[in-house]
Amino acid sequence: MSSSLLSPLPLRSLLRLSPSLRAQTFSVLSRPPPNYPGHVPLNLIERGALAVGSALGSITNPYRHDLVAALAEATSSPYFIARLRRAMLASPTGRRILRDKPRITSRSMSLEKLRLLPEGTVGRGYAAWLDREGVTPDTRDPVRYIDDPEEAYVMQRYRETHDFIHAITGLPVIIEGELAIKAFEFANTALPMTGLSLAAIVRLKKAERERFWKVYGPWAMRNGLKSGECMCVYWEEELETDAGVLRERLGIEMPPDLRKTRKREREEKRRAKEGVE
Amino acid sequence: MLLSTSPALRASFFALPPSLRRACYATATSPSASHPEIFDLVCVGGGPAGLSLISSLKSQSSTKRLKIALIDAQKLSAPPRTGDGDASGTREFSNRCSSLTPASVKFLKRIGAWENVEQGRVQAYTGMEVWDGVSGAKINFDPMDRGRVAGVVESLGRLVPGSGFGRGAEDEGAGEVATMCENSNLTAALVERVRGLEGVEVLDGTKVEGIELGPEKEKDGMSLDLSLWPVLRLPGNRKIAARLLVGADGANSPVRTFADIPSKGWDYNQHGVVATLQLDQVQDVSAPRKAFQRFLPTGPIALLPLPGNKASLVWSTTTALASHLKSLPPAEFTAAVNAAFRLLTTDISYMLTHSTASQDLDWRESQTDLRALGLPQDFPRVDSVVSGSIASFPLRMRHASTYTGHRIALIGDAAHTIHPLAGQGLNLGLADAESLARHLAIGMEAGMDIGSCWCLDGYGSDRWGKNNAVMGVVDKVGKVFGASAGPVVWARSLGFNAVERLGWVKGGLMRGASG
């Protein structure tokens, strides 16, 4: 796609960007057609603005999951999402996932069936976690700002399997739990959004922050780096696997139960206050 | 010799008629048990370099009368040629083809060998596209770039009468980048030329049993001093002495070993896989053809055009991958070649290690952005591989420390071995032959002994530096493109993109190759 922004002078032509970047310097008046349904091609300036805007918005309000999603898409191209896709292509299971392109929605994941699975399996744990936190598999935004269709699927798959990581580690959906998961994903997938979202540590209370630096941060880094690529796990086939067996296969330790720790802390504080009175 | 005889004998000697006097001199140099037959130039090796050296010498007036012997261990017979009535496409193309630069073709025309080449089996190509397998950065050598070479220097040169600068842009040339020719076709043409020459004794099917220095000079005052001359021992107790011994005998040159010239370099731990491929495009005879090369981290893969819808494959890759490729059935090999030009490097290495090439090819092609990876628009699809044409050879770089010694000269692969990624091996050998012939002519015109250093040093200083430069650049290009780390890929893609935009640089490179 030729750009009307660059003149044909020879000196300017030397300063032209490399092809992968040049493809994104189209003018807003000549936007290229979408590569898949829902695709919105952005040029370099637009993507930069989206990255900055969504970063500021999501740190102000961490529950804006659509801004977090937009930040992820704006910062992953051109290198990080390509690296993740290559990592999936290098593994036999990852290739099968990319060939089948399974989607996790409430239709494809029947929660009634999952609740009937034996105790301790991945599927039962996933259903229990969804019930405990009050979320469903449908709350994931579709990918819009990644140009290559296969890379867009990788990002979609990352979003949809995020809940499975919650399920096998038992970390809750509150900010503290989410940050621990994000740190784990940063060490495991190297997506920039996961690293950037750790800036939300400033929003944690003092006790939570201390817990993060002492317990959950080191756990996340250690396990994220040493475990296998979690993106290459074919979750649909692992629903009946024992969660402990899967954790061992991947090389993930179970972190301390965060909800229990917080409850214990609250009760200690209440007892201390009652004791004073 | 005459001074040692008595005056009376000398007087009676000079009384003889001239023809009888000459016979007395002649007996001193005829082959006898005391000393071997003397040749002016003995060329060991009947490959393109040796044969073109001899043809070149015989086409120059000052060196036309040299007594030359050509020795090769194999029979130098021309391969069966099809008659005039048959289509020249009935025989399959050999898998050993070389890319001849326009300079080499000009040289071959000058020595009278090009007219013997079967023209229906050579393919000139006018464009070349080279791209990076990781980033997709590319350089497209277009024939239009040649026209743009007439830059500032040449415009000024044309204004100044008599200067050489202005001439370059007007030379003939259909704008071809190079010509693909089978090695056997070229060798047969040269053999036909050499067999038609006078004063050349072709000793083919003759293995050199040993090379030594000649015997110590005897003290009888009459025999020749051949103690510093190379003497070759041939089967049947025949010995020949060479005023100049030329080693054109390949990478493991016995002549170079005899001369104690060390050859330094390294092995690439790569093999070059060659094959003859059938393409899906139906090419008109006059259609312009293009050569393609993609740099993968394991080594470059090149598709070079042959007449009709055929092409020659040269794929430099690791030794393990090369042996795996050779073991594949033809359909899998074809899929692997198509994959190697089109897909992500991750996909290629996965498919070659998990033997799923043909299964995954269609799926991966549909999921890959081919334009972003640099695939040219006009790149053909490989339909099949000609059976029995898959072979491989080890790749290495060697350079002799010097090309000349006392009565020794090395040309061709005996002097240097190079990586095939730039297609320069044969061209450097032909350039060596041309340079040596030229310097021997200069020597002859000045009355020099052609085996002496005064004559040979000119050849060494002309060719050694140039060959070293070409080999050095090819080696470094190979190493730069063998890396897949981010900064190296970024830097080399920047360089590629810069050269692609500077048409005059590309034009200069193409003109340099055309001599």
UniProtKB/TrEMBL annotation, chain A:
<feature type="region of interest" description="Disordered">
    <location>
        <begin position="257"/>
        <end position="277"/>
    </location>
</feature>
<keyword id="KW-0830">Ubiquinone</keyword>
<keyword id="KW-0456">Lyase</keyword>
<dbReference type="InterPro" id="IPR027540">
    <property type="entry name" value="Coq4_euk"/>
</dbReference>
<keyword id="KW-0831">Ubiquinone biosynthesis</keyword>
<dbReference type="Pfam" id="PF05019">
    <property type="entry name" value="Coq4"/>
</dbReference>
<dbReference type="InterPro" id="IPR007715">
    <property type="entry name" value="Coq4"/>
</dbReference>
<comment type="subunit">
    <text>Component of a multi-subunit COQ enzyme complex, composed of at least COQ3, COQ4, COQ5, COQ6, COQ7 and COQ9.</text>
</comment>
<protein>
    <recommendedName>
        <fullName>4-hydroxy-3-methoxy-5-polyprenylbenzoate decarboxylase</fullName>
    </recommendedName>
</protein>
<feature type="binding site">
    <location>
        <position position="162"/>
    </location>
    <ligand>
        <name>Zn(2+)</name>
    </ligand>
</feature>
<feature type="binding site">
    <location>
        <position position="163"/>
    </location>
    <ligand>
        <name>Zn(2+)</name>
    </ligand>
</feature>
<keyword id="KW-0999">Mitochondrion inner membrane</keyword>
<feature type="binding site">
    <location>
        <position position="178"/>
    </location>
    <ligand>
        <name>Zn(2+)</name>
    </ligand>
</feature>
<feature type="binding site">
    <location>
        <position position="166"/>
    </location>
    <ligand>
        <name>Zn(2+)</name>
    </ligand>
</feature>
<keyword id="KW-0862">Zinc</keyword>
<comment type="similarity">
    <text>Belongs to the COQ4 family.</text>
</comment>
<dbReference type="GO" id="GO:0008270">
    <property type="term" value="F:zinc ion binding"/>
</dbReference>
<keyword id="KW-0472">Membrane</keyword>
<keyword id="KW-0479">Metal-binding</keyword>
<keyword id="KW-0496">Mitochondrion</keyword>
<comment type="pathway">
    <text>Cofactor biosynthesis; ubiquinone biosynthesis.</text>
</comment>
<comment type="function">
    <text>Lyase that catalyzes the C1-decarboxylation of 4-hydroxy-3-methoxy-5-(all-trans-polyprenyl)benzoic acid into 2-methoxy-6-(all-trans-polyprenyl)phenol during ubiquinone biosynthesis.</text>
</comment>
UniProtKB/TrEMBL annotation, chain B:
<comment type="pathway">
    <text>Cofactor biosynthesis; ubiquinone biosynthesis.</text>
</comment>
<keyword id="KW-0503">Monooxygenase</keyword>
<dbReference type="InterPro" id="IPR000689">
    <property type="entry name" value="UbQ_mOase_COQ6"/>
</dbReference>
<dbReference type="InterPro" id="IPR018168">
    <property type="entry name" value="Ubi_Hdrlase_CS"/>
</dbReference>
<comment type="similarity">
    <text>Belongs to the UbiH/COQ6 family.</text>
</comment>
<dbReference type="GO" id="GO:0106364">
    <property type="term" value="F:4-hydroxy-3-all-trans-polyprenylbenzoate oxygenase activity"/>
</dbReference>
<keyword id="KW-0285">Flavoprotein</keyword>
<keyword id="KW-0496">Mitochondrion</keyword>
<keyword id="KW-0274">FAD</keyword>
<keyword id="KW-0999">Mitochondrion inner membrane</keyword>
<dbReference type="GO" id="GO:0031314">
    <property type="term" value="C:extrinsic component of mitochondrial inner membrane"/>
</dbReference>
<comment type="subunit">
    <text>Component of a multi-subunit COQ enzyme complex, composed of at least COQ3, COQ4, COQ5, COQ6, COQ7 and COQ9.</text>
</comment>
<dbReference type="GO" id="GO:0071949">
    <property type="term" value="F:FAD binding"/>
</dbReference>
<dbReference type="InterPro" id="IPR036188">
    <property type="entry name" value="FAD/NAD-bd_sf"/>
</dbReference>
<dbReference type="Pfam" id="PF01494">
    <property type="entry name" value="FAD_binding_3"/>
</dbReference>
<keyword id="KW-0560">Oxidoreductase</keyword>
<keyword id="KW-0472">Membrane</keyword>
<keyword id="KW-0831">Ubiquinone biosynthesis</keyword>
<dbReference type="InterPro" id="IPR010971">
    <property type="entry name" value="UbiH/COQ6"/>
</dbReference>
<protein>
    <recommendedName>
        <fullName>Ubiquinone biosynthesis monooxygenase COQ6, mitochondrial</fullName>
        <ecNumber>1.14.15.45</ecNumber>
        <ecNumber>1.14.15.46</ecNumber>
    </recommendedName>
</protein>
<dbReference type="GO" id="GO:0120538">
    <property type="term" value="F:2-methoxy-6-polyprenolphenol 4-hydroxylase activity"/>
</dbReference>
<dbReference type="GO" id="GO:0016712">
    <property type="term" value="F:oxidoreductase activity, acting on paired donors, with incorporation or reduction of molecular oxygen, reduced flavin or flavoprotein as one donor, and incorporation of one atom of oxygen"/>
</dbReference>
